[in-house]
Amino acid sequence: MRASKYVESPGPRVILSSRDNPQWHGFSLQVTSTPESYESFATRFDHYWMAVIVSGQNAARLRRGREERVVTFSAGSFCAYPAGQHWDHVRWDGQPVESIGIYLDLNQLKFIDVLYEQRPRLEATFCSSTDPGIIAIAASMRHELETGCLSGRVFAESLSLALAARVDALGGGSARMQYQGRHRLSAASARRTTEYIETFLDDEISIGDLARLMQLSASRFAVCFRHTFGMPVHRYILSRRIARAVVMLRTRSAGIAEIAQCCGFSSQSHFTETFRRFLGITPRRYRDRVE
């Protein structure tokens, strides 16, 4: 969000920003705390922008020309605006509010243009709305960033793609995906996909790479993959990494850190946390049991 004029009183405080973590590969986001009273002028958005309210309640008085409206925000609500200028002056009054601001710049998701006609049409305006899907995705994005982006590129991309699709669907756009024809990958396509994943399991795997392999848009590939394998792309990849780790723990004397690296985990701690989440036991204890 860029403002041509800006009044500090004292203004929002940034708690968390994706700009500080180069491992984040999704939409840019900031978690901010806005004081109980604050105002700004001539705010212009360079691309689609939304804010999800985490805590607090506030009323924003928006003025554009002679038109003025008051919008109330509370925990669990969100607002979203297409690119452009939507008000000349805004003033917030009420309780301090913590929010997650997300910049839905589709150009950040390089794979989104595989089939341009299937891009999410981010055109709808939401002054103050509620949607459990939007809230859950934004919370997952924040958690992933807070924990150091341990789940990898494909997870951040998946969350960003899901958010854009959800916003588009709420606005009546193309993300409702009334696809003609099959909703699953063919047997040959499924085999090529799994072979690619197994080959590059120790590396970063992008939804864009997989979608291009199938000559599908990322959105359609994600839908077809889930219908074919019964789970999202990122969870399937995690399950295959855990499966490889189990084999290595049983058959090799490599250290835990080396196994984590060979299985594509960003760190030993991420490997241990994910292994425990899948199997209910740490890798070290698992190895001790099978030796």
Give your account of this protein's structure.
By secondary structure, the protein is an alpha+beta fold. The protein contains nine helices and eleven strands. It has three domains: 2-147, Jelly Rolls (Sandwich); 177-230; 236-290, Homeodomain-like (Arc Repressor Mutant, subunit A, Orthogonal Bundle). 38% of the residues lie in helices and 27% in strands. The protein has a six-stranded antiparallel beta sheet with strand order 2-3-10-5-8-11, with helices on one face. A hairpin with a 2-residue loop joins strand 6 (57-64) and strand 7 (67-74). Helix 6 (233-251) crosses helix 9. The protein is elongated, with a radius of gyration of 22 Å.
How would you concisely characterize the structure shown here?
The protein is of the alpha+beta class and 291 residues long. The chain has nine helices and eleven strands.
Strand content: 25-35%
Q: Pairing-aware structural class of the strands and helices?
A: alpha+beta
Would you identify the regions where 5 or more consecutive residues have pLDDT less than 50?
1-8, 113-117, 175-181
Number of helices: 9
What overall form do the CA principal axes indicate? Answer: elongated
Biggest sheet features: 6 strands, antiparallel
CATH superfamily of the largest domain: Jelly Rolls
- Tell me, rounded to a whole number, the average pLDDT: 83
Task: Please identify the oligomeric state.
Answer: single chain
